[in-house]
Amino acid sequence: TNKQTNKQTNKMVVIHVKGSDGDGFLFETTTDTKNEDLIQSLVNLQNLRSRAKVIVDSVRGLAQYGMMKDGTVGGRHAGATVVSSTNDNQNHPVVECQENSKNILVDPTGLRIGNPPEDGRLVQTLLQTAKDLEEYVDKNQVQKRIALTIETLQDKISNVRGAVVMAYPMGLPEYDLVRISLDDESLESTFVANDILDPNTTTLWCAGKEFQRGKAVSDRLGCNEKTKVIAKLQKQGSGPPGREPIVNEQERQAMMAHYFKRQEELKRLAEVDDDDYLNSQWADSKEMKRSLQGLDRIKAPGFRFS
After folding, report:
1. pTM above threshold 0.85
2. Helix or strand holding residue 86 (H, E)
3. Average pLDDT for 156-185
């Protein structure tokens, strides 16, 4: 039942995997999970998140400007489109020039042929599935307290793959970044190549101590199933990660604003004349006399009680 599921979810160890750039995600596990299994899951999830970034970026380019130009050909024309024939020496569609295309949009980066799908519904499906994937892997999921799962992330990627197949049933050329991001396991030719982690050598750290392989999560965090910790993944040989700053970025900005406001107040006080206080009511030597006589409550324009 739903109540039983919620109870089980509340008794999970929540691990906030945090990156050096502020990126991160939540993952739920149990105290009896082996550390090597936990590291494997976290690495696979992090690598899928990196893959998702490439997929989202490339699919949006595909929806706007069509498939990529062949790097060996150099992209002969912005209005080139794809025909169903293939070369004997290549196993991907041939890009041929088509001058009379009705849907030419010049790609400002020069990477794509400028001929997106003509069916607007297919374009919207591509953009929507890419948006769903982007929102699921976004770091704001941490603030929403939504833990990620490999199964759900793979389903989101499968939705994008289905949208691509619908828009391009003949398939994409093997040099297109969309096809690479969906099919290539290494992602060596993408901008996230340096972010891909090896599950066999990656280490997991929490509070300056490593999760030793061969042990369980309980050996590091205890047996409390309601624990929430911040952890970091490190590549082999990187050693322990740096300590977290004492104050976060929002707190630092608030402190800077407070100090700036205080500095401006002190500056204004320094500019005030030293004798300016003599004009204040409390500095009037006859104020007490007028108060006792009840004259302080009488106000008459142009008349002053002495």
Report:
1. no
2. strand 81-86
3. 91
